[in-house]
Fold:
Amino acid sequence: MSGRINGFSLAYTAVGAVVLWSGIKGETLTDTFRGLLSGTAPALDEEPITQSSSSSGSGSSSSSSGSTASAPAGDTGAAGAGAAANQATARLLAAPYGWSTGTEWADLVSLWNRESSWDNQATNPGSGAYGIAQALGHGDGANTAGTVTNEYGGYGVSDSVAQAANSGSAAAQITWGLAYIKATYGSPESAWATEESQGAY
Structure:
């Protein structure tokens, strides 16, 4: 195996995550797919919890709040419907990593709340970091360039997924972001600790 994630692997992972989500929530696959296609975030059946660290909403990392505590498990902290839908997609894609619940999920939400407010079009005006995961400088020339930027690439993600991420696809940015966190930090908890101590991850 080349260690790269191709389109088929991404599709199988996404379908598997949808099946898992449907089973956990007791919904039919049709209802789950209909909701995803309409852009409606699946209900999480959890009470919203106030996020302890504020999100800049500008796509730039804000300075550390001084607190190293994780956000409470189940914290959505979504800034709007688009952010909530992107979080629902991330929860499905994080499931195969074992990161869709508990501290790992809460820390992933906290991380991308702070970095981008889960906005797949967020751009840091100072650095050029782009999208939900605020990728910067990982693109590989014309192989990964998208219609907006060329910041996503590598970490076992196929060039076509990187191109989609660089063109604004939330699912592709999340796919890359999860692979980047796994390769660089091992887990969202470790990435969040870095974010808290350094103001960036």
Residues 59 and 116 are 4 Å apart (CA to CA). Residues 39-75 have pLDDT under 50 and may be disordered. Residues 7-40+82-198 form one domain.
